[in-house]
Amino acid sequence: MDDHRIWAFEEGLWTGNATHYREAIDDECLMVLPAAPFVMTGGQAIEAVSKTPRWSKIDLSERQIMRPQEGLIVVAYKAVAVKDHSAYEAYCTSTYRRVSHEKWRVVQHQQTLPPPVRA
What confidence tens digit (pLDDT) does each residue in 57-96 have? Predict the structure, then answer.
């Protein structure tokens, strides 16, 4: 998967509908998010996303891509997401594995909130 397609895929995870998310997340995926229950499996994450509004805008910066072996891609980035005049910021990683020709699924995703700004 080329770099452009990787970033489009990742942006779609933030803005796409529940069907898109269900098709992109592997059942064996593990996620760590900064909200309870914090550690989730793919099925739990898909269920949670299907019940929540999607982000209307996402900006991914500080982008990094590694390909440690054939059929495995790891990305890291800073996300700033917006919906209904509220914003969310996190540092994220995702790992993709190829399940068949040109078909990829997320097998790991993690979000870390930036440290609070001190006055």
Answer: 999 999 999 999 999 999 999 999 999 889 999 999 999 9
Q: Tell me the three state secondary structure of residue 45.
A: helix
Q: Is 8 exposed, middle or buried (0-12, 13-18, 19+ CB in 10 A)?
A: exposed
Domain ranges of the chain: 3-112
State the pTM of this model: 0.90
Q: Is 93 buried (19+), middle (13-18) or exposed (0-12) by CB count in 10 A?
A: middle
DSSP character at residue 35? S
CA distance 29 to 13: 14
Are the C-beta atoms of residues 112 and 91 closer than 8 Å to each other?
yes
Q: What CATH code would you report for 3-112?
A: 3.10.450.50
